[in-house]
């Protein structure tokens, strides 16, 4: 066995259509062979019957933001935050992660917007320095109903890390919050607003949605198509939502909130991505 070759044996390997006990040969950083049975090579690594599987690709996680801001009003240094996030992803079996960053925040008290450049810069730095354990890409979650969304998107649209853009609308009556009662329950519970403050908040978000959503959605979709970036919908709830997403050229249906929307997305040929909140 050459210095550039490694053999893992006595592993339960998860393949396309079966799990088999066997050995894996890695040569020059690539899988060279998958063999049934144990290897007789003395230097082979005995996996002791552990599972061996392909690395997972995570398309949407807000995990990195939580490391940069672990508590309200607390900002963590960029490089340690990026490295801690990277380590947790690797430990979870993820080898490529699309780090989701919020562009245009409904919560005016949030620090996420101000930390955008720091998060992207820190992530790029650990990649450039060879300190990252896994591959990182950016997923920009664009809140189309917010006034600053387009400007902030454009400031990051040419990042070499950018690989996915999703169009979100968390305004009252939209997508995830088709029901205003559900919207009231969620935001009043999350932000502990009084009834009066909540109604003022709803009124402002409705005004923002009417003014910015359509314009931002069109502009961001067009910018993605010019750059060849993958575009995703988010939280589509109705057949009409799906039709609109298809019109804008989305390729991924991210977290449809109803079976109707998921089935419609599938019929239109969109890749349907689900998450635990949509399943359980």
Overview of this protein structure:
The protein has helices at about 65-70, 80-90, 115-130, 150-155, 180-190, 195-225, 240-245, 260-265, 275-280; strands at about 5-15, 20-25, 30-35, 45, 50, 55-60, 95-105, 135-145, 160-170, 230-235, 250-255, 270-275. The chain contains nine helices and twelve strands. The protein folds into two domains: about 5-50, Urease, subunit C, domain 1 (Roll), CATH 2.30.40.10; about 55-280, Alpha-Beta Barrel (TIM Barrel), CATH 3.20.20. The relative contact order is 0.09. The protein has about 280 residues and is of the alpha/beta class. The model has no long low-confidence stretch (mean pLDDT about 90).
Secondary structure layout:
Blueprint: E1 5-14, E2 19-27, E3 30-36, E4 45-46, E5 51-52, E6 56-61, H1 63-68, H2 78-91, E7 94-103, H3 116-128, E8 135-143, H4 149-156, E9 162-168, H5 180-191, H6 195-227, E10 230-234, H7 239-247, E11 252-254, H8 259-267, E12 271-273, H9 276-279
Parallel strand pairs: 1-4, 1-5, 6-7, 7-8, 8-9, 9-10, 10-11, 11-12
Antiparallel strand pairs: 1-2, 2-3
Q: Name the quaternary structure.
A: single chain
The helicity comes to: 25-40%
Number of helices, where a helix is a run of at least 4 consecutive DSSP H or I residues: 9
Structural class: alpha/beta
Instruction: Tell me the count of domains.
Output: 2
The secondary-structure element order is EEEEEEHHEHEHEHHEHEHEH
User: Biggest sheet: strands side by side, in what order?
Assistant: 6-7-8-9-10-11-12
Overall pLDDT, averaged?
88
Poorly predicted ranges = none
Would you identify the CATH architecture of the largest domain? Alpha-Beta Barrel
Any idea what the radius of gyration is? 22 Å
| Global outline | elongated
First-to-last CA distance: 48 Å
